[in-house]
Amino acid sequence: MTGAALAALCVPALLAGSVIAHVTGGAVAAAPTLVTVGERQAHVATGFTVSPGRVVTVAHVLEGDTATVRGDDGIARRAVVVRRDDRLDLALLAVAGLPPGHAFVPAGTRLIVHHDGATAALPARVVRRIDAGIRTAGASGVVRRPGLELAAAVVAGDSGAPVVRDGRLAGVVFARSRERPGVAYAVDATALARLTR
Predict the structure, then answer these.
(1) Which residues of 69-78 are buried (b: 16+ CB within 10 A; e: fewer)?
(2) φ and ψ of 60, to 5 deg
(3) pTM to 2 decimals?
(4) Which residues of 23-55 are buried (b: 16+ CB within 10 A; e: fewer)?
(5) CB under 8 Å to 33, separation ≥6 — which residues?
(6) Per residue in 142-180, pLDDT tens?
(7) Domains of the chain
(8) Coil/strand/helix, residue 62
(9) Cα torsion for 117, 120, 195, 9, to the nearest 10°?
């Protein structure tokens, strides 16, 4: 899989998305809290809480060490990058004062998204685990990351959205296919352990 096969779901900017409150060992311990990542009203990506005051999103939307996130209350909050892993395309942010989420996540596999200030659980299916080879702008060579190929209808701004399978975090969306409608890609949730500890 190369940059030609993938369309990034977000343009470079800052964070504004919060989704799954408190992920412990992959298990969702509370209702998802989603945030939108972006400056002003621009929805650039999605993010989700993994513990109080900590949000995971995709790294490719970050410009610098801070970002702006908005929860369901619509209030813009400053987020500070705690850790960033460009190879995995993941970032951990510190955000104070996020309200808890109230989204209900039904059984099965769902993509939890945050659009227009509302959270929704969309149907998704994990097609297979992959070793994703990604060629990013300005990079020499291909970076590899543990990934999931998804059957899911994702749109711009869904990068950073969590994929939840029967109440457990399965992955984090980072791109969609340019050539295959209804196909998206997520970083496998096993990769988050290094970022969130």
Answers:
(1) bbbbeeeebe
(2) -70, -10
(3) 0.80
(4) beeeebeebbbbbbbbeeeebbbbbbbbeeebb
(5) 18, 19, 20, 21, 48, 49, 71, 72, 98, 99, 100, 101, 103
(6) 888 999 999 999 998 899 999 999 888 999 999 999 899
(7) 6-196 (2.40.10.120)
(8) coil
(9) -80
